[in-house]
C-alpha cells in the first residue's frame, strides 16, 4: 500500500531556493511504496495564527484552518524543508506547525535544513517543536551547506543535481527509512 509523505517547503521568500531542493528531494527520496507531495507554504498562505481555540482541541473555526487540517491529516509522514535565517527557522513554518496539533502527533518526520553552514541552529529549534507536537523524528535528517560556487548571481543553483550530489545517499536513505517506518 502506498504511503503519502508531505514535503513542506518552509520558506516563503520570493527569492528562495527551496523549490529546487524540494524537487530534487522528491526525486532522490523516491521509493516504490511512497508518494511524496510538495506542500508549499507560499501557496497555502496561512495568516498568522488566528484561531480562537487552542489547536489541541481540534476545533477550527476559520476556513483556512479547516482546509489546512484536511490537507495535513491525509499524510502518513512529513519532511520539513527550511533554511536557516539568523540562526533560526522561518516564521511561516512555525506558524503552519502551530495551527494544528493532533494532525502531527505520532507521524514520522525528517528535517532538511539548509544554509551557508547547513542550518544546524535552525534544525535545533525545529527539533524542539516537532518533539512538542509529539511527532516521531527519524534518524535521517539532512543539513545542506550551500556553496557560493554552486549558486548564480540571484542565489539559485547553477546545477541542482551537481550541487546536491554530496547529499544524495542520505536523501535515498531517508526515503528508505520512511518506507521501513511506515511498512506496518
Throw out a few tags for this protein.
184 residues; alpha/beta; Rossmann fold; six-stranded parallel β-sheet; 7 helices; 36% helix; globular
Annotate the secondary structure layout:
Elements: E1 3-9, H1 18-28, E2 34-40, H2 41-44, H3 63-73, E3 77-83, H4 91-98, E4 108-115, H5 120-132, E5 136-137, E6 142-145, H6 160-164, H7 168-181
Parallel strand pairs: 1-2, 1-3, 3-4, 4-5, 4-6
Describe the structure.
One of its GO terms (cellular component) is cytosol. This is Flavoprotein. It comes from Levilactobacillus hammesii DSM 16381. Helices cover 36% and strands 19% of the residues. It has 184 residues and is of the alpha/beta class. Strands 1, 2, 3, 4, 5 and 6 form a 6-stranded parallel beta sheet that branches. The longest helix has 14 residues, at 168-181.
Strand content: 15-25%
Reading off the top of the CATH hierarchy, the class is best stated as Alpha Beta
Which architecture per CATH? 3-Layer(aba) Sandwich
Helix and strand composition category: alpha/beta
**CATH homologous superfamily descriptor:** Flavodoxin domain
* First-to-last CA distance: 10 Å
Low-confidence parts: none
On the 0-100 scale, what is the average pLDDT?
Answer: 97
The H-and-E topology, N to C, reads as EHEHHEHEHEEHH
Q: Rg from C-alpha positions?
A: 16 Å
Could you tell me the CATH topology label: Rossmann fold
Helix content: 25-40%
Largest sheet: 6 strands, parallel
Amino acid at each position: 500500500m502506498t504511503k503519502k509523505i508531505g514535503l513542506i517547503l518552509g520558506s516563503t521568500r520570493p527569492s528562495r531556493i527551496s523549490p529546487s531542493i524540494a524537487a530534487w528531494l522528491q526525486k532522490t527520496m523516491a521509493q516504490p511504496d511512497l508518494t511524496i507531495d510538495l506542500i508549499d507554504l507560499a501557496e497555502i498562505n496561512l495568516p498568522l495564527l488566528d484561531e480562537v481555540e487552542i489547536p489541541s482541541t481540534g476545533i477550527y473555526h476559520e476556513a483556512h484552518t479547516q482546509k489546512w487540517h484536511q490537507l495535513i491529516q491525509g499524510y502518513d509522514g512529513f519532511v520539513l524543508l527550511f533554511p536557516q535565517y539568523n540562526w533560526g527557522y522561518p516564521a511561516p513554518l512555525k506558524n503552519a506547525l502551530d495551527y494544528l496539533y493532533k494532525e502531527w502527533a505520532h507521524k514520522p518526520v525528517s528535517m532538511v535544513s539548509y544554509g551557508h553552514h547547513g542550518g544546524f541552529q535552525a534544525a535545533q529549534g525545529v527539533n524542539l517543536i516537532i518533539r512538542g507536537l509529539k511527532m516521531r523524528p527519524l534518524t535521517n535528517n539532512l543539513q545542506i551547506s550551500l556553496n557560493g560556487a554552486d549558486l548564480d548571481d540571484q542565489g539559485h543553483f547553477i546545477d541542482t543535481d551537481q550541487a546536491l550530489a554530496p547529499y544524495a545517499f542520505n536523501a535515498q536513505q531517508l526515503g528508505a527509512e520512511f518506507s521501513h517506518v511506515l511498512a506496518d
